[in-house]
Amino acid sequence: MGLDSEKIDKIESLLDKWCENGGYRDSTVNMPMLSAKLRIPRPELSCYFENYLKSSFRIWLSDIRFKEAQRMLLEECSYSNDTISSECGFSSHAHLYKIFKAKTGYTPGKWRDSVRKKR
């Protein structure tokens, strides 16, 4: 199934707005829920992720949460890792740690320290 450029633009716009409104913060969100919320048929949404983002929904969502966690770690110094994981939609602080270790090689706190030392 292919999507025309109009459909791609619409999906992209809806996903951007969903992210801007903090939809990723819901730790229970899944593809069927997002599809229903955005009123995009699930096969079309799945096609968008697979063919145009070259990603899966879960990886895309994890990346958005990871980027937000990075931002918060640097800008919200008083926030605990539990608070950051909750605010970013991770199911637990352990999941936040796992993602950070996999993507950076560091725990969230060590990553924050390493970035600050470079500045």
Write a structural description:
It is elongated, with a radius of gyration of 16 Å. Helix 4 crosses helix 5 (81-88). The chain has helices at residues 5-20, 31-38, 42-52, 57-75, 81-88, 93-104, 108-118. The longest helix has 19 residues, at 57-75. Helix content is 71%, strand content 0%. The protein folds into 2 domains: 5-54; 64-118, Arc Repressor Mutant, subunit A (Orthogonal Bundle). The protein is an all-alpha fold and 119 residues long.
Largest sheet: none
Number of strands: 0
CATH class of the largest domain: Mainly Alpha
Strand residue percentage = under 5%
How would you name the CATH homologous superfamily of the largest domain? Homeodomain-like
User: Low-confidence spans: pLDDT under 50, at least 5 residues?
Assistant: none
Give the helix proportion (percent range).
over 70%
SSE ordering: HHHHHHH
Pfam families: HTH_18 (PF12833)
InterPro entries: Homeodomain-like_sf (IPR009057), HTH_AraC (IPR018060)
GO molecular function, one term: DNA-binding transcription factor activity
Keywords: DNA-binding, Transcription, Transcription regulation
